[in-house]
């Protein structure tokens, strides 16, 4: 009996060990489950060499390697948690003057992944200029939508341009592979993620650290939490490059706590009108009662910050839900009506439905910078829009596009967030 229990225990230990390893994504058959030192040793054993000069130019948390990947010379960037040294992401880039070479690598890579892994795909290949292949990798066949995946493999073919000329001239072609381990990526904190800006920019603009703090406070005052997070994350870049201005030493932990506080208000995400941009929707609570006040999100990103912001109190949330359901019905009818009809590329038709909202517009200037927002109660206009051979519903204010529903899925995504707000 004792031997049987011992044997069972060994089996359990063996199973647990293999399952734990399987939970991590692999790169070149190397599990992404250890420190940067261990991972580097395994890479060099495969003939991959450290690029010391480039690695010295990157912030702590990144190392650059060179070697053969998919049969071609490639630059391999390894990202690791700067506090724990655990590897969480790999980026590989292959460049070529020949488009056929990149196309062949893309075809081979897709085929290899689909033959070698248990996966689910979420490709975004509608726009030929921005192809993005995404494979969610599983250790066992997923049984439902909540089944844990080991990581994501992204493949992004694109173009290389010579920016020294104007207009920019085509210089070649490139393909980028991104391997993200789910577990280790989830353990990142704001101060251990890769910087948002370059070291040269951070070092040459020490005065911006104070401005980011001022702008973050202003956005906080208006309930624009995603913009506040952006400002504080830009401040953390100074710590990642070890170039914190005098007077700001030792507040890294405080910045992280504020970011976590803002993130706790996140309700969900929606697709806005600009380049299929995803905006976080945040709950704003009454400062005194701590109860639900309204929700907010930013749209129309140009430059560093969004220029338009939307707030919806409970009354407006209810009205928008009612009107969006009607818009969804009209969308289905219109799609059926124009089926088989050739429409002009920029065909438009007004819809007699208005969506109530509180719209804020930022007016940045050299003296005050960002975060001085003026709010107005508005009735957002809606219309059908035919663009890129697709029927859409556009929501705008004073000819400034705010939302662009490209299909029923995006309408339902927005409705789901609004309904969730009502439960707060």
Task: Please describe what this structure looks like.
The chain is of the alpha+beta class. It folds into 3 domains: 22-186, no CATH class; 192-263, no CATH class; 308-422, no CATH class. The protein is built from 11 helices and 18 strands. It has helices spanning 2-22, 36-44, 52-57, 99-116, 182-186, 199-204, 208-221, 225-240, 252-263, 314-337, 408-422; strands at 26-27, 30-31, 49-50, 62-69, 72-80, 87-96, 118-121, 133-138, 151-162, 169-181, 266-271, 278-285, 292-302, 305-313, 348-362, 373-387, 390-397, 400-405. Strands 3-4-5-6-10-9-8-7 form an 8-stranded antiparallel beta sheet. An 8-stranded antiparallel beta sheet has the order 11-12-13-14-15-16-17-18, sandwiched between helices. A two-stranded antiparallel sheet has the order 1-2. β17 and β18 form a beta hairpin. The longest helix has 24 residues, at 314-337. It is globular.
């Amino acid at each position: 009996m004792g031997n049987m229990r011992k044997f069972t225990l060994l089996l359990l230990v063996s199973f647990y060990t293999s399952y734990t390893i399987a939970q991590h994504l692999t790169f070149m058959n190397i599990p992404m489950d250890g420190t940067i030192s261990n991972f580097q040793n395994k890479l060099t054993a495969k003939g991959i060499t450290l690029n010391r000069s480039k690695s010295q130019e990157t912030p702590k948390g990144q190392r650059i390697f060179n070697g053969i990947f998919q049969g071609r010379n490639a630059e391999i960037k390894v990202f690791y948690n700067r506090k724990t040294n655990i590897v969480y992401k790999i980026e590989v880039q292959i460049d070529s003057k020949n488009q056929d070479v990149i196309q062949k690598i893309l075809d081979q890579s897709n085929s290899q992944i689909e033959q070698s892994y248990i996966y689910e795909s979420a490709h975004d290949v509608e726009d030929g200029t921005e192809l993005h292949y995404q494979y969610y990798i599983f250790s066992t066949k997923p049984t439902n939508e909540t089944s844990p995946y080991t990581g994501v493999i992204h493949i992004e073919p694109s173009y290389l341009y010579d920016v020294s000329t104007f207009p920019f001239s085509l210089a070649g072609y490139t393909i980028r592979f991104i391997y993200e381990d789910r577990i280790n990526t989830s353990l990142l904190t704001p101060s251990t993620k890769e910087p948002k800006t370059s070291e040269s920019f951070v070092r040459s603009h020490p005065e911006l650290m104070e401005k980011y703090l001022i702008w973050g406070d202003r956005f906080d005052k208006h309930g624009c939490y995603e913009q506040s997070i952006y400002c504080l994350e830009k401040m953390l870049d100074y710590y990642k490059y070890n170039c914190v201005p005098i007077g700001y030493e030792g507040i890294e932990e405080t910045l992280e706590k504020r970011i976590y506080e803002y993130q706790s208000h996140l309700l969900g995400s929606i697709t806005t009108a600009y380049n299929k941009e995803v905006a976080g929707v945040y709950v704003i609570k009454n400062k005194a009662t701590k109860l639900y006040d309204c929700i907010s999100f930013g749209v129309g990103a140009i430059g560093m910050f969004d220029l338009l912001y939307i707030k919806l109190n409970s009354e407006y949330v209810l009205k928008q839900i009612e009107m969006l359901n009607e818009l969804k019905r009209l969308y289905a009818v219109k799609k059926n009506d124009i089926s088989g009809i050739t429409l002009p590329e920029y065909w438009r038709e007004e819809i007699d439905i208005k969506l109530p909202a509180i719209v804020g517009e930022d007016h940045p200037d050299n003296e005050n910078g960002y975060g001085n927002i003026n709010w107005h109660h508005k009735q957002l206009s809606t219309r059908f829009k035919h663009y890129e051979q697709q029927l859409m519903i556009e929501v705008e204010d004073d000819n400034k596009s705010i939302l662009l529903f490209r299909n029923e899925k995006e309408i339902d995504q927005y409705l789901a967030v609004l309904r969730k707000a009502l439960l707060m």
